[in-house]
Design goal:
Elements: E1 2-4, E2 9-11, E3 26-30, H1 34-46, E4 50-54, H2 57-67, E5 73-77, H3 85-94, E6 101-105, H4 110-118, E7 123-126, E8 129-130, H5 131-142, E9 153-155, E10 158-161, E11 166-169, E12 172-174, H6 178-188, E13 195-196, H7 197-204, H8 215-227, E14 236-239, E15 243-246
Parallel strand pairs: 2-8, 3-4, 3-5, 5-6, 6-7
Antiparallel strand pairs: 1-2, 9-10, 10-11, 11-12, 13-15, 14-15
Length: 248
C-alpha cells in the first residue's frame, strides 16, 4: 500500500494479474506536480497500462493535438502552468479531437462539475481520491464491448456505429463525446422504453451517483442540442418521474 495524502491522492496498488485489455492501452497524464504524476504513472503501470506524463499545459495541448491517436485516455489536471485544463479541454473539442478526458480537480462544487462536463470532459474525479476509484473510472470510460455488436444501430433517421463511434442524423454527422455517445447508444439499444435515471447513471457512469444529481440532465441536454435541436421531430423524451427514452 502506498499512502500519499500530501499529493491529494491515496493509492492502494493491487499486485494482481494484469487484465489483458490494459496491455495495449496508453494513457497521457497531465499533472503539474511531478511527484504526483510519477506516482499515478507507477500505479497505472502496475495495472498494465502504458503511461506518459507531462507537467505543462501548453506542452500537453500540443501533444494531444499532434498525437491524439497514440492515446486511449488523457488524465488532465485543472491547475496547470501556461494553459489550464479547461482551456485544453475546450480547445481539443473545438478541433473535434474525441480522445476521452478524465479531469482531476480539487473543486467539488456542482457548478464547477457542470462547467467541466460542458467543456467536453467525459468524467471528473475530485481530489483527494483513492487509486482504486481512479482505476474504476478509467475502465468505465475506456471500456467498449468487443463482440456481439451490430454493425449499426438505427432509430428513426439516426444511425450509430458502435465500432467507429460515428453518429449521424438524416445523413449529417453528429460529433459526440464518449459519455454522450455511450448515453445515446444505451438509449438506442432500448428504443421506446422508459429508462429510469438509476439505470442510466449506473450503466453509463458505473458509480453510485445520486439519482437527483444534475449530471445526467446535463448530458441529456447536450445530447438534445446535438441530436434534436435542428429537427422538427424530437426523439429524446423526458418521462416525468422515471427518466428518459427515445420515442419515434
Amino acid at each position: 500500500m502506498t499512502d500519499c495524502k500530501n499529493f491529494g491522492i491515496v493509492i492502494y496498488v493491487r499486485y494482481s494479474r494484469l487484465e489483458a485489455y490494459n496491455k495495449n492501452m496508453k494513457i497521457l497524464v497531465v499533472e503539474d506536480q511531478e511527484s504526483l504524476a510519477k506516482l499515478i504513472k507507477k500505479g497505472l503501470k502496475k495495472e498494465g497500462y502504458a503511461v506518459d506524463y507531462l507537467t505543462d499545459g501548453e506542452a500537453a495541448q500540443r501533444r494531444i493535438e499532434s498525437s491524439s491517436d497514440d492515446y486511449d485516455l488523457v488524465i488532465l489536471d485543472l491547475m496547470l502552468p501556461n494553459r489550464t485544463g479547461i482551456e485544453i479541454c475546450r480547445s481539443i473539442r473545438e478541433r473535434n479531437i474525441r480522445i476521452p478526458v478524465l479531469i482531476l480537480t480539487a473543486k467539488g462544487e456542482l457548478e464547477s462539475k457542470i462547467t467541466l462536463l460542458n467543456m467536453g470532459a467525459d468524467d471528473y474525479l475530485v481530489k483527494p481520491f483513492e487509486f482504486k476509484e481512479l482505476l474504476a473510472r478509467i475502465r468505465a470510460i475506456t471500456r467498449r464491448p468487443t463482440n456481439a455488436l451490430p454493425t449499426e444501430l438505427r432509430f428513426a433517421d439516426v444511425v450509430l456505429n458502435p465500432s467507429t463511434r460515428a453518429v449521424s442524423r438524416n445523413g449529417k454527422e453528429i460529433v459526440l463525446t464518449l459519455k454522450e455517445f455511450r448515453l445515446l447508444e444505451y438509449l438506442m439499444r432500448r428504443p421506446n422504453q422508459a429508462i429510469n435515471r438509476e439505470d442510466l447513471l449506473s450503466n453509463i457512469w458505473d458509480f453510485d451517483f445520486d439519482s437527483f444529481s444534475n449530471v445526467l440532465d446535463v448530458f441529456i441536454n447536450k445530447l438534445r442540442d446535438k441530436v434534436d435541436k435542428n429537427h422538427s421531430k424530437k426523439l429524446i423524451e423526458t418521462v416525468w418521474g422515471i427518466g428518459y427514452r427515445l420515442k419515434d
